[in-house]
Amino acid sequence: MRFRFHFPLLGLLALHLAACSQEAPEGPVEVTLWTSWAGFEKEALDGIVDDFNASQEEVRIRCLNVSQLERKLLLATAGGNPPDLAALSYAAIPVYAENNALVPLDRYAAEAGISKDEYIGVFWDICVHRDHLWALPITASVTALHWNKQLFRQAGLDPEQPPRTLEELEGFNDVITHYRDDGSIAVLGHLPIEPGWWQTYFCHWFGGNLWDGDAITVSSPANLKTAKWIASYPERFGADNLLRFQSGFGTFASPQNAFFTGRVAMVIQGVWMDNFIRNYASPDFEYGVAAFPSDDPVGRPSVSLAEPDSFSIPAGARHPGEAFKFLAYLNRPEVLEKLALGHRKMTSLRAVSESFLDQHPHPYIETFIKLAASPNVTRKPPIAQRNQLESDMQNTIGLLLRQKVDPAEGLATVQARQERTYRRNRIRWDRVAEARQEGWRQP
Questions:
Q1: Residue 431 CB coordination number (10 Å)
Q2: Helices then strands (H, E): number in the chain?
Q3: CA distances from 260 to 171, 216, 244 (A)
Q4: Could you tell me which of 130, 138, 182, 339 has the fewest CB atoms within 10 Å of its CB?
Q5: pLDDT tier for residue 308 given thresholds of 50, 70 and 90
Q6: What is the pLDDT of residues 199-247, one digit of tens each?
């Protein structure tokens, strides 16, 4: 990923930020926290901030909602006047870390007695890059199958029994799918690109990945099997028919969502989906949650993709110690549970209280917690080129669904292009690795 800075704009932004964040000469140290959360999520965080500010007199947190946070954070960091804390997307951690835009948190965590042992492993690991800790995970989610019980019932299926294998999922798909008199699709059991946020990563349900820790693996046998599965959809339902069907979907965050309106019976979604169901689906909407089935449910059960929210300290922050004091407070079990209840998500911690489970509004919160602890929970590849890799894969999947490319050919093209990018990035990293690592080890 390349970043371009507009330096006159950068200077103005830095002056503006400096003017807006002057501290009083006496009193508590003011720590500025940037987040992109809004609505009930921001309200929940504001409640935690108020509790912290009232609990002591040394540090005062000022929480700001910032649009386009990651872009503005880069500008502010380059200008030497970043916030003290930022709710940085976990996906950005490798890029920010390798560009020296974050403060390593290893020493702060060790001094506070915070370690991986307290956390669900995958959420902690996502915050580690190049053997250093760059963020702390807070609220979190994993993906799971969501199914419309009413559509199951109408198709003669047991509404309480989700598919347990991919073969069974496709069998349910055939039973649920039905057509109008003109041959167009009225209802579809499942469509891999609805909602399409994880279509690039279905390979994990086939035992594959896009990067194995050392090399790009797009064209692996497991990924080819995944591509052939996706390509089977236009073969079964018709490429043009699928495109027309999808074009009729409404906006995700609306009552016209294809899952809420009964257009698609089974989707893969995260823990937050219950919020959208409560806000946009009809009051009598019935749904269930279970692990999305893999191609080997015996040898590889409960596959899921992890996605935590995380807080980082940007490089150049004026008050990193005070910022981490709040971060340590936020990660206390009772505090993090309060935030997770407000966000209607799960925490990133291994243990949760019975009261958290009893109070949680999500009827399937324990299903998500169990999936997060599964040995088959996985993550997106922590590489700087991940955005380009995802874009390439999404384009190829689009070609597969339009029957414009052969699965093996499409993956081979992405493999070659991404290998070249990966080699260039490794060469660049190797040039600065020793100096960067040495700097990160400094107290």
A1: 10
A2: 17, 14
A3: 22, 37, 19
A4: 182
A5: very high
A6: 999 999 999 999 999 999 999 999 999 999 999 999 999 999 999 999 9
In this prediction, residue 89 carries a pLDDT of 87
* 288 closest CA partner among 266, 264, 317: 266
Per the CB < 8 A criterion, the answer to whether 143 and 269 are in contact is yes
Quote the tokens at residue 133.
Answer: 């800790």
Q: Which strand (E) or helix (H) includes residue 148? A: strand 144-148
pLDDT at position 442: 79
- Beta strands per DSSP E along 244-303: 264-269, 287-290
Pair of tokens at residue 298: 């015996």
Q: What is the dihedral of CA 15, 19, 20, 23, to 10 degrees?
A: 130
Domains observed in the chain: 7-139+308-370 (3.40.190.10), 144-305+381-423 (3.40.190.10)
Q: What is the pLDDT of residue 20?
A: 45
How long a stretch of residues is the chain?
Answer: 443
Q: Show the 3-state SS of 51-96.
A: HHHHHCCCEEEEEEECCCHHHHHHHHHHCCCCCCEECCCHHHHHHH
pLDDT in tens, 82-120: 999 999 888 899 999 999 999 999 999 999 999 999 999
Model pLDDT, residue 160: 98
Dist. CA 235–CA 242, nearest whole Å? 10
Residue 84 has a pLDDT of: 97
Asked whether residue 74 carries a pLDDT value surpassing 90, the answer given is no
Paired strand residues for 308: 140
The 10 Å Cβ neighbour count of residue 28 is: 15
Q: Is 380 exposed, middle or buried (0-12, 13-18, 19+ CB in 10 A)?
A: buried
Tell me: cis bond preceding 361? Omega within 30 of 0 counts: no
Q: How far is Cα 367 from Cα 347, in angstroms, rounded to an integer?
A: 13
- The pLDDT-based confidence of 297 (bands split at 50, 70, 90) is very high
pLDDT given for residue 26 in this prediction: 73
